[in-house]
Specification:
2 domains; single chain; 11 helices; Rossmann fold; alpha/beta; globular; 5-stranded parallel β-sheet
Length: 268
């Protein structure tokens, strides 16, 4: 089987069609199942919650940033699939010395669609993956891209203590903008920490508290409303903003409905 180059520009040499795959990323685990290669996936992380049977029936290799290399070795993988942002460099370097490791690097929707196609080709499901990517791309293209004359400004939170928000050069930022929102913190890169003062100075019209990686709850909504009494605050489904695999097929409808609900809330 010919060699491949992953999204980080690393060479990945496979001797044959992979039969023992370890996935180190929840969204890419779900993708593998949707591509129809569930029987070839032997290991996943404890955060691979979709589909639910992944954690029940596959060996758990640790968390995304704390991989148990010994467990991986016992599984004898012939392909490991990871991600630059979600997995630690030390773990990936250690695994790459012994196994073919294909890494994704996702900052935009286009990166995600490319990842879907590349992973599909790697596991012998290229045509299925290409069709999936085309359908997802078409659905995301239908999302409303304007909010009256200007898009509502959103502060998208991923963490508390310290407060961390989404900045530019992130997949969530790209998806927010495609859906018709603007990012209150797009002057900052990646996932900056922000203080209450900086948050107030940004004056977001809307605050989205993501359901993951930090599990925001109603008490945090109340806390944020006290900090920003004029903002519309709500919890959003983080998987539909940040899972860049097959789950993206659900994102367009969700984001369109979210934009409609946000418009209504800001008008009252």
């Amino acid at each position: 089987m010919p060699g491949s180059t992953d999204q980080m520009g690393r060479a990945v040499n496979l001797q044959s069609l992979p039969r023992r795959i370890v996935s180190l990323v929840p969204s890419q685990t779900e993708l593998l199942f949707e591509l129809g290669v569930e029987n070839r996936v032997v290991g996943v992380t404890r955060y691979c919650e979709f589909p639910a049977r992944a954690r029940r029936h596959k060996s758990l290799v640790g968390g995304t940033k704390q991989i148990n290399v010994d467990v991986v070795a016992a599984l004898k993988p012939d392909l490991i699939i990871g991600n630059k942002e979600e997995n630690s460099k030390d773990d990936i370097d250690a695994l790459s010395e012994r196994y073919p490791v294909w890494m994704s690097d996702i900052e935009t929707v286009d990166d995600a669609l490319d990842m879907i196609e590349q992973v599909g080709a790697l596991v012998g499901r290229g045509a299925v993956a290409a069709d999936m990517a085309a359908r997802i791309g078409a659905s995301l293209d239908t999302m409303t891209e304007t909010y009256d004359e200007s898009p509502p400004s959103v502060a998208y939170f991923i963490w508390r203590k310290p407060f961390m928000v989404v900045g530019r050069r992130t997949f969530i930022d790209d998806l927010l903008k495609r859906a018709g929102f603007s990012n209150a913190f797009d002057r900052l890169e990646r996932y900056p920490e922000v203080t209450p003062v900086e948050l107030a100075d940004a004056e977001p019209q809307v605050v989205f508290l993501s359901s993951e990686p930090f599990p925001f709850e109603q008490k945090h909504v109340d806390e944020m409303r006290r900090m920003l009494p004029s903002a519309h605050v709500r919890i959003v489904d983080g998987t539909l903003f940040s899972w860049y695999g097959s789950r993206l097929a659900l994102s367009a409808d969700y984001l369109s409905e979210l934009l409609t609900a946000t418009k209504a809330a800001l008008r009252t």
